[in-house]
Write a structure and sequence with these properties.
Chains A, B, C: Belongs to the glycosyl hydrolase 42 family. Chains A, B, C: Its EC number is 3.2.1.23. Chains A, B, C: This is beta-galactosidase. The structure is a homotrimer. Helices cover 32% and strands 21% of the residues of chain A. Chain A is an alpha/beta fold. The first copy, chain A, has 4 domains: 318 residues, Glycosidases (TIM Barrel, Alpha-Beta Barrel), CATH 3.20.20; 48 residues, no CATH class; 199 residues, Rossmann fold, CATH 3.40.50; 56 residues, Sandwich (Immunoglobulin-like), CATH 2.60.40. The first copy, chain A, has an 8-stranded parallel beta barrel, surrounded by 5 helices. Chain A has a 7-stranded mixed sheet with strand order 10-9-11-12-18-17-16, with helices on both faces. In chain A, helix 8 runs antiparallel to helix 15 and helix 13 runs parallel beside helix 14. The first copy, chain A, is globular, with a radius of gyration of 25 Å. At the A-B interface, helix 8 and strand 13 of A face helix 2, helix 4 and helix 11 of B. The complex binds zinc ion (ZN) (3 copies). One zinc ion binds next to helix 6 of chain B.
Chain lengths: 663, 663, 663
């Protein structure tokens, strides 16, 4: 378990560097990431390379026993390159060029940019091959940030046509699978298909979905290009990429397949402001939402089923969300422990020192711009000292997470309020409120190891997946399927009757669906109690399933809403509404109980527990202290039974052993 | 009185068709609309026609005694045509092309597209000339949907210049009538005038209004092109077009002049969400707002003063509004009866089966995609059985509705809250709350047949119209003129003193006007009582008019606000404010009483009555039941004196005979 | 002290002119502004000049003893010129042309337009050289209105590169001073630098700031071009320009340097609707906010330290804000007196008659379109009669106002709620609530004459300014520095520790800053009392300063927030929060007391007093009457001790002599 930092020596005078790296070492940091965005410094003019500054920085770091994570600098092609080969620029949907002046202005499908990428990555990799201090590489930086996964340039148009040609036998097959008879949208050949540009009305959902898949695949292919170069030159290096939180347009699982290590960039006080549909509480503005962060931890841990890194950990106040409240005292340490509890092996703070130039001047570092320690420095040092080695997390439950379902529900949300992330988040929160570790994995993943599987909106479904889920249940699994599952086939066409190929397993079909605004009463029963739901309702026709809940409002009053059914050794439940918190607690709690998963009664807001390698983490993101009741023979490895606001405690044992109460 | 359905056989396998048409026939349907959007199927490549599928579908329908309404497929030019002749595409104001991928991407002024239209319409008409099952044609589909009436391409620029040249003697006359001295906007010749593109500040209102007129006229001309082809080939066909609800950019009266039958597309639960300024109630989300639908019924009935059709009637949940609540039980039947009560002769449900491909997958049909009956099927069948033949509606009151006034007030609303539809809707609602039938007709229409005329915002006025209104009043008419009447001349120039040429008739002029935000108190008296008004206030100078109401708030306190005057055999009232509901009830009620129009005291929200051919319809759009007190010798033709929520009752007699009370 | 009016004879038939000018003269008006926007009339075709109408109008005005202010007509190049030389048009950031059809469509850097400007201004000036009735010129009209200061055309791109070349020794210096190492933003030469176009993420703040400076300088240069032509031809004329209220993109101080007289256009009921962050009260909708207007008066008086003119004074209801309430009775007179109290020497109402054509038909004049007096006419006549000659205002306090700080804080506000105008307005209001006259001057201005200086957000700071402020304090000045001072160097780069070069003077540095949304409690103490603040908090490290206030909420609880320090003969205070009203009153009150500035206890909302030349103006913008307690030997020159709602009183004496209380 390791703490590290992101460092930009090129922003500081050479004479400062020794002091910087000395202070890093004395804080207990073990890794230093460098080099993303450095192309302009490495190659100020075409062919004029200047690596010496980076050589020196690596040497200084290595000398102090720390290791370096180098980055390929491709996120920021310099101005001379843009001027020489302007065709590398991305284009917006309406043809507007995305010009030089910020970052990520290149197109993933640009042949010119792939050439340039090959050139700079090869040169840089050769320079540092066999360098004893370079442990691995981060490829590029935050692929797709600022809406750059989807580009509409001519290179992309051609690549899209080729991509389609590879996936369909012929244009007739495409017309058939998309259903282009609708509104006379037939294509005569692949050449006739453009990226989805400006149109009077909305686009064909099958065309859009394929463009979104193609765009994500373009990033995968571009990433693979870099990975292959680096592996060819030195295959001792680990390769990683720093993904983003709740990022919508890129399939992180696909990119991860070409990596050795998955890392991501965690900014808790920003995400509560810009990635949720409701206003954050004051405590969340000071420390973030543990379930919002936790789901990302679990997605990126799940991607390779391997411990992840936080490649950029928020170090204090930050520049990009609407507001920049100071984090609570201790929050920077709490985040590190929370990451480890979720299966992280390293937490790298971003950045070492606040930058005095350019777009991120309002982003804190562990040190102030003048060099003195900033608020996060003591937190980071404390975390570095407290952390100890741990086995990976062993999660009893899987949450099925799918980027294709995210894209397809975004294309036709059928409600301004339906959001894939928020809907999945409802189930994820119910699991975490019970202190249960969750693997957030793609539906293709083997499910044998899980006592329970939660599938919130398995929107696109094919027979193969349905068969695998059936097999999982028959073999004794507990499966909870959420609303909007099996609505569409993989080409985004409506099935005959929802949930499509899952209907036999579920034992029910959807008779009607409706989406409802807030002013409409939305009540439903479950297991004899009445609850609120929101946004989405499916009236079910139960075949051989047991009706567990019925509507208690509207024209669907008394229609079945929640059913379950025993199948072989297991059981499947289908929840036809988007449950509010209490209903989610009840439905999920029942599934966990049936699965025999040890859990805690629903925890208070902001208080979470998590088990890893024989230890239980109590992470308190709330502004109230809690008491932890643990067995008398348990050992407090960090803190004690009184866990203050924004503090953490770690005790030996397992989740079933502890009880947390608010003081 | 007829029920029908819209059908897309091309979306389904051939082997399903018999079952579909059998089920239509057994539900009592009499008309089937087909073929709009079918160009890609009819002509998959240039000159390669494939009509056989349509021949067969028509035959199957005809065999079962039903008739076909065919559509010209011009709303969706196929991709091969767009690729061959890209100049047919529309352009946005900033030059962005409206590309292929949805519908309505063609320009009405494109010479190329008019050629192609001639070609396909001729071919199709010749194919079905003398076909005994084809009763008539729908020309194109929903002209102007998705903001496509106004285009800014070069074809439109040239056509606009020609259109201006035809309407003005010379460029000097245009400069004079527009008033281009303002801000040095003089034009040297017609060639110098462009469509109104992107400018630093707002456009000249006279130029904008002429562009809006021109754009509407372009659709009229395009529609006439199709009508002439069809009439030439077989003049037994009726010709219609399916207009939209509360549609702002096209003058439906002008288009209707080339048609035999006016039809429109009614989606009650969608319109309450996206075409009103206030939030819908729960009952409105389940069944719509009868006055919002009713005004459209009355506009389209008024267009040719002839029974209208609902060409697309909402069949259940729909895809395009923000939310998609399930309609109330019975709502689909209620809408059919409501349309008939307003003078409709046919109600065609859209669509037969839910579609499994493309943009409208979330739009219900009478049958589910799998083929089983959906919620609307029983309602449609019931309506088909209940309906009986009726004479046209005979309305005692006219509401003057004018697209030019809508455009001109949109150009200079002088308040974010002034909306022509909502302002007219206030008066329309007051009339309908009294159960009075209303013809919504253009100001040019003869008014002799009406006991009362309501003219909400007769913004653009010329002497001829003023003279006709004066004659109407002198001959005994009751005229109610609303605020913002006579502000401008027909070229959108301010008159010397509002209400311009109406001043003598009204007996007052406007001293001041003001527009007021919600936080300002807005009170006014009328006939001794005090009322609320909203948004707009005119301080009047009464000449020989009687002051009926004065302001009771603000710097205009005690200024006259409402006046009336006897003129010859009749009377004219002028209401200088936008009245809130109670004031509208009072002002309108007085006019009806003076006109001797039989009416009901203001009805409860959502409950409406309407008289047609010796029957009174009681349509209950509310979620509370009502009781109807009718004469003992009256016969209940449908239902009885207890009309449940979302139900309908029809009793013999006239509006003055019944009393409706909430139970 | 003079009243005048803006007149457009070209909008009216020649036979009306005598009556118009007779009525002006009889109302006591002394100046008539004419000719802006008249190019199309003056030169209907290239080289065909028609000045006769203007000759006549001037003659008629002069004959009645009034003087003319002529305008160059360059704000509206006519269509023939645009068609001939389309390269004069501005371009938006995304390349969209700003087309003909409104006004201000020309680019300030267009070589073609500068030629045309030279031609028309020369011609016009020569025509009226030595005309005895032409007193001076307004150059162009409202430079930059409708977002036109910043243009992105090729002429601007080239001019920007030249402008940069003139300001930096070489491209290396630019890279160094901007800090382009960040995100590889280095430039190889000046030619590589474009105007800031569309980019995936935000722009480099140093590049943006320089573009904003350049754009403002482009207007300065264009204005100078006109000024030089006019001065060359007749140097008896005064030259002015009509600036706008709270205008963000143009440095008015820089433009003013080439003028003899500064004037501006005041529309109180519009500005409260569209230039403030909170909703206006009903009284403000009727008469405006005296502090919002007052700050603009003081900026434009401060620009040349000379009495200003209101070149366009709102005459009644106006067309451009969201709503158009009628002003209160007397408001048009109140505004004239308020302007004079703030140091204005002339108030010109806009316009003489309501216009019946074009974009401003909903804008009142002193006369109605038909010619009869409108509401403002009596007010204007009354003001003309009441006004008397006065010496300039002598303000004891300076408020430092800086356009560069406005631009730089707009580039990185670091909060959606931080607004330079509103933040400065908080301090300005506190000063005006005490009845103190304020010069709003740029930081470069000599401060010797001021007893106190308030510097709200002195964001960009260099050593020279810091030294001048230090000297000011050492010599006995009272300096109040607000939050966000000294954050950046003049190139928009973060300093080592805020407040940068001011740290020694202030005796404290900023340890942390944070921006906070409304839901977070924000409390702070000052001088033993607890107060609210908003949006912005800086935790201070006090060196030798005295801690005067500490935070009382959040993680910064007990951190210093407000400090002060004695330095030489004076004192400096630093307020690290954006104070709410009561805290601003307390902090500012203390500074005034220490400075020995006579002041009134905080006045009621909307009630303001101001001293000029031995008289005190009591201007009541509230809807409640007030009583004024003045010394028995004081003389009421206008009104008396009872000042009604929306009324004014003027009494001899000074601010320290009177007491105002609400009745
Ligand atoms: Zn691309
Ligand atoms: Zn066009
Ligand atoms: Zn320009």
């Amino acid at each position: 378990m390791t703490i590290g930092v992101c460092y930009f020596p090129e922003h500081w005078p050479r004479e400062r560097w020794e002091r910087d790296v000395d202070q890093m070492a004395s804080a207990g940091l073990e890794y230093v990431r460098m080099g993303e965005f450095s192309w302009g410094r490495i190659e100020p003019e075409r062919g004029q390379f200047g690596f010496e500054w980076l050589d020196e920085a690596i040497e200084l770091i290595g000398d102090r026993g720390m290791e370096v994570v180098l980055c390929t600098p491709t996120a920021t092609p310099p101005k001379w390159l843009v001027d020489e080969r302007p065709e590398i620029l991305q284009e917006d949907l309406d043809g507007t060029m995305r010009e030089f002046g910020s970052r990520r202005h290149y197109c993933f499908n640009s042949a010119a940019y792939r050439e340039e990428t090959d050139r700079i990555v090869t040169r840089m990799a050769e320079r540092y091959a066999d360098n004893p201090h370079v442990a691995g590489w981060q490829l590029d930086n935050e692929y797709g940030c600022h809406g750059t996964v989807r580009c509409y340039c001519d290179d992309c148009a051609n690549a899209f046509r080729e991509w389609l040609g590879d996936r369909y036998d012929d244009i007739g097959a495409l017309n058939e699978k998309w259903g282009t008879t609708f509104w006379s949208q037939q294509y005569g050949d692949f050449e006739a298909i453009d990226p989805p540009g400006p149109t009077p009305d909305e686009h064909h959902p099958s065309r859009l979905l394929e463009y979104y898949r193609f765009a994500s695949d373009s990033v995968v292919e571009y990433n693979r290009l870099q990975a292959e170069i680096l592996r060819d030159i030195d295959d001792d290096w680990f390769l990683t990429h720093n993904f983003m939180g709740h990022f919508p347009t890129l399939d992180a699982y696909d990119v991860a397949d070409d990596l050795d290590l998955v890392s991501w960039d965690s900014y808790p006080t920003g995400f509560v402001q810009d990635r949720r549909s409701d206003d954050p509480t004051v405590a969340e503005l000071r420390a973030g939402d543990p379930d919002q962060i936790g789901l990302d931890h679990d997605i990126y841990r799940g991607a390779l089923d391997r411990p992840f890194w936080v490649m950029e950990q928020q170090p204090g106040d930050i520049n990009w969300p609407p507001h920049a409240p100071q984090p609570a005292d201790g929050a920077m340490r709490l985040w590190a422990h929370h990451a480890v509890a979720h299966g992280g092996d390293a937490v790298m703070y971003f950045r070492w020192r606040r930058c005095q130039e350019g777009q991120e001047q309002y982003h804190a570092g562990l040190r102030k711009q003048g060099g003195s320690p900033d608020r996060g420095y003591a937190d980071a040092s404390a975390a570095a000292e407290e952390l100890f080695d741990l086995d990976p997390v062993d999660a009893p439950v899987a949450l099925l997470h799918s980027y294709e379902n995210l894209w397809a529900t975004n294309i036709q949300p059928h409600s301004p309020d339906f959001d894939y992330w928020n809907h999945s988040g409802t189930y994820y929160r119910a699991l975490r409120r019970r202190g249960v570790q969750v693997d957030a994995v793609p539906p293709e993943r083997s499910l044998d190891q899980y006592a329970a599987v939660v599938a919130p909106a398995l929107y696109l479904l094919d027979d193969a997946l349905a068969a695998r889920l059936e097999e999982y249940v028959e073999s004794g699994g507990q499966l909870l399927v959420g609303a909007r599952s099996g609505e569409k086939d993989p080409h985004n066409k409506l099935v005959d009757a929802q949930p499509g190929p899952l209907a036999d397993l579920v034992g029910a079909t959807v008779d009607q669906h409706e989406s409802l605004p807030e002013q409409v009463p939305t009540r439903v029963t479950f297991d004899g109690e009445e609850y609120d739901f929101r946004t989405w309702a499916e009236w079910l026709d139960a075949d051989d399933a047991t009706i567990r809940g019925r509507y208690a409002s509207g024209p669907g009053d008394q229609q079945p809403a929640i059913v379950d059914a025993e199948r072989g050794e297991g059981r499947v439940a289908y929840c036809g509404v988007w449950p509010e918190r209490e209903l989610a607690d009840a439905v999920v709690g029942e599934v966990l109980d049936r699965a025999g998963v040890a859990s805690h009664p629903p925890l208070p807001d902001g208080v979470r527990i998590a088990e890893r390698d024989g230890h239980v983490w109590v992470t308190n993101f709330s502004d109230s202290p809690v008491s932890v009741d643990a067995p008398t023979d348990a050992t407090w490895v960090i803190g004690d039974a009184n866990v203050e606001a924004f503090d953490v405690g770690v005790v030996t044992g397992s989740v079933g052993d502890v009880t947390v109460t608010q003081r």
